[in-house]
Amino acid sequence: MVRLARTTEGTPLLGDEAGFVPLAAADPSLRSIGAALPRAAAGTLPDPAIATAERIPSSDVVFASPLAAYGTLWGIGLNYADHAADLDEDRPSEPASFVKPTTAATGPGGPIRLPPREVSDRVTAEAELAVVLGRTCSGVSAAVADDVVAGYVPVIDVTAEDILERNPRFLTRAKSFDSFLVFGPWIATTDEVDDLGAVRVETVVNGEPRAENRVANMMTGPRDLVAFHSDVLTFEPGDVISTGTPGAHPIEPGDAVTARVSGVGDVSADVVR
Hints:
Elements: E1 3-6, E2 12-16, E3 19-22, H1 23-26, H2 33-42, E4 73-77, H3 81-86, E5 96-100, E6 105-106, E7 109-113, E8 123-133, E9 149-160, H4 161-166, H5 171-175, E10 181-183, E11 187-188, E12 200-205, E13 208-214, H6 222-230, E14 240-242, E15 248-251, E16 256-261, E17 265-272
């Protein structure tokens, strides 16, 4: 698996299961993860084995959010039929899209900062698989979506559910607090995910699995989400589609949340107020 990541000091990294090297040690022309995204989509990233530096085990790396700057952050609601049933919601006939501000993005460890209780007293966390775009594109078919996708990343999406329940039109506000989208620890390239449908997405709170499902059970799969939205807008490298959750769970200060995405990676964050 080829992975793109960053340290907390901002050093761009290239890696695989054996560890990470500075990205520039494998290709001096690549000075940032953003610059590497088109190469990731094209399948032409260098092999970490050719780098002029020795690999560092991932256990020895303190990871930041994979990208220093994100583009548009799309979210998809109710994309698993089971989750829609749990919420007593009708299954949408088209992807239920929303946008989160880039200020909501944070990296591994978070922390997820809950709003004051007088603003929101019920916040939930959700594990999701996210798609990172690697090329400028529009009008893309699902059959060639992998050609414009740089890779996949595990994310924790967070919602102030009591705000949302007061009025569905408050969705943007309920989703947009700082730290309400945790990325990391790396972007895994698409060619290393052999069977996207078999990927399992699991929401874990304090070590206890709270919800899980497979990508195959999404109502609109990742490639179709790229195609659907590319008919509306032009994607740019660094844009993200977080593809929906199999289920959310309430969180409180002191909790630890993990998004487990099989074949891609895990990301965890502590919860504070």
